[in-house]
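To: structure subgroup
Subject: Chain for Friday's discussion

All,

I'm putting the inputs and outputs inline so they're searchable in the archive.
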Amino acid sequence: MYLHRLELRAIGPYPDLVSIDFAALAASGVFLLEGPTGSGKSTIIDAVVFALYGGLAGSDASSDRLHSQHADPAVEPFVALVFETSAGTYRVRRTPQYDRPKQRGTGTVKQQASVQLFRLTNPSDVAGEPMSSRIPEVGVEIGRIVGLDRAQFLQTVVLPQGEFARFLRSPGEERRKLLQSLFGTQVYDRTADELAARRRAVQAEVDGADDRVRDALNRFAQAAGLDDADETVVPSTVASVRAAADAAAAVRAAAAAAATTAAEHEQAATARATALERRAGLLVRRAALDDDAPAVDAARSTLALGERAARVTAVADGLDAAVLRADESTAAARSLRDRHGVTADADAVVLRRDALTDDLSAVRHLVAVEDGAAARRSAIAGATADAEQIAEQLLERDAALDARPTERARIVEAARTAARTAADSDAAAHEVTRIRSLRADLVARDHAAQRVATAEQSVAAARRSATDALTAERALRERRIAGLAGELGAALTAGDPCPVCGSTAHPSVATPQDDHPTTAAVDAASDATRRADQHLADAASDLAVERAEHQRLVDVVGTVDAPTLDALTAAADERVRAAHDAAALVLQHERQRAEHDTTTGRLQRERNDLDARRTVLTSTALADAERLDTDLGTVAAALERLGALLDERPATLRTAVELLDERLEAYRAVVQADERVAAATRARDDRRAEVDRVLDDQDFADVAAARAGRLDPDSTDRLRALISAAEAERAVVTAGLAEPAVVAAADDSAERLDLDGARAGRQRAAAALDEAVAVAVSAADRADAVDRCATEVTRATRARDETSARSRAVVRLADIANGVTAANPTGITLGTYVLMRRFEDVVAAANDRLRGMLTGRFTLETSDERESGSRARRTGLALAVHDHTTDTVRDPRSLSGGETFTVSLCLALGLADVVQAEAGGVSLGTLFVDEGFGTLDPETLDDVIGQLSRLTAGGRQVGIVSHVEELKQRIPERIAVRRTAAGGSQVTTTV
């Protein structure tokens, strides 16, 4: 991935727009990002990380630091980054969440974060193709395009040197934690923990399976009625219980058959008795129907005559109503013609109505035109007056615009004057910084003088202590030498040779004195002397250091004293204040110029709007006047045409239309009345013909005869009810006598039926069946319970065997992954094993670079053993430095500061290579290396710069973040960050 261009505004210490062209900076491969501590170097790297991933480079950094406290609160903070990968060229623009002033009223409102992602045809494409503006979607797309997540990006693009120096010197357990955070191998530890949990789970499953087998055997024994049972007796017990249940079922089947036969015999006897009684009742009901048959036939004849007469009278009543309607419509039509004076026949009236309708339809819309003529004349006059008034306003706007350039020139000149004064801000700030540093050195010189005096006193005290300790040691040694004969005599025993003369006879053995010093006392005095000497050496060393520091400060301060510094400070502060005030005036004049330009633009827009309105009003008034003249001519022609149809010419078109509308309504009323007369006449004739036809069909001589035979509704309902009841009763009796049981009862008698005997037999068979069912059900339930329990025993046994077989693999795998010695003699856990392989790759990549630095003196080595002095349980992450000059293996903590930085840098670069490979071979075209170059001597610095230059092969860009002065001389391409007088920072790019 290559960075092309970064733009940011209102971010961190940068209130104004900052633009950095990485492509131009990295033309030679290496560029420098330098500036004082706290000036904002890290903010540039934070901006790159924020643009890509929406977060900062530091894991503990707050996103609140993004919005600049030095920028105008109304200015939108943003970061825009143009970058290129193998997937193409893209631009991402992000804004953080910030508080902006409300558009109305006071206070602030929270503006939510936003993001936009564009695909570009080339790095200079300013438009691009929008891809997404949703934060989650852009996050997914960035991960796909770059090929790295945020953690991997920070491990490979921004190399934190300090962290790797700690990594180099840390013990194996701390190194493990750091590698886990870099490679994200916690998943393997979680896998081992999960396997351990599963081991415990499967062991619990095995125990549970054994418990379930025991519970199933206990339930089986209880169901089978046994005192105890094991897996061997289950099949035979199931067979014996099932045989007893089958025998009881056979007895129940025989009893059920006997009970069914007895019940069927009782039901047959009962059915025969019921059929005898039903046949006797039906015969009685049929005799009663035969007696009522003549009356029912007479009712049918009377009802048929009444129905025929009703059909005739209904049609006759319709004829009477039609005759009445025909007479009424004829009289109404005659009266309407007389009232409107219409004497023409019906066809002539229809023609007049149609002609008048066409004439009115052709001119009716012109009535509205005639009515709106006055309003249109008034509107035209108003538009003309408005155009004249706007012309006067245009003259006023032109006069105001002519005076604007002079005022703007005054504001610009004032801004230039203030800017020249504000340009001294950097020099004034540097002078203030120099004076403050000089004051600090003056105070430090006084303190150093005090420390020198204190150190001299400490050296004198340490010298006295060393002299006293040496004197005490010498006195002890002299006393011990003087009493050495007594010490030797005390060690002699009878018969042993003398260590001095060799004789076994000891005639006069010397005895030790009471205050003779022991060896331990002499050794203690010797140790005290060495400690005193060491203390004296340390005090002398401290004194030399303090004297050197004091002399350095004396050389730096020179002859400057506090009053002189006060005067210099006052003068520098005055310069800073003047520059600051001038900068404020510049901002004030810039705002005035912006407001002046805004007002000028507003006046110009108002002038243009007025001119456009005047033009529109003038042209519209002329067009409306022409259309009005045309419309009034059309109205006059229509009035002339309608006036010819009236006796007197009306004054307006509306009056003519209203008079002719009245005539048209009269014509329409007459035509409708004529149509009603014709329809009523046709209906009357149709009714008369229908009456004649119905009289013939119903066999009546005339309507009067039919009216005489019609029945009233009550008589009709009574006759119909009588006939329906008789027919229903006869159908019921006939169907009943036709039933097979009733027909068979004709040959049966009550004396041949024994109902009591049949009932007693059925009761005896039912009692026997109940007893057999109870025995059979009990036996079947026991057999079913035994079968279920046997199935549970089989299932539990199978599950126990399967669980045991499955658990063996899980237990072994968990023991291997967690380094249990019985299964894994090395004691290396799964997570440590993975880290060891990754660690070996990192060390190999680091050694490739380390061989080209420090004259190839050092290489790194790994070991599977625990580090010396480490009490950690895990093994395999030990790290040592092989010194080829002495052919010895050294502890990394024994390296000097420069050696530590060089080895740490190689480790960081090696890790970047490994992480790049882990990410699928992602091309890392841009790399930032953090601080640490100040610890290197010139020769080693050359080696490091050369090694970093090797990284630029193939177009790779390397940015060095440092404030080391020598790097400024070595690397011409740089990004310089400097503080401003207003408190923010500014960026200067040197290519």
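Points worth raising on Friday:
Confidence is low (pLDDT under 50) at residues 867-873.
The CA atoms of residues 442 and 755 lie 140 Å apart.

D.
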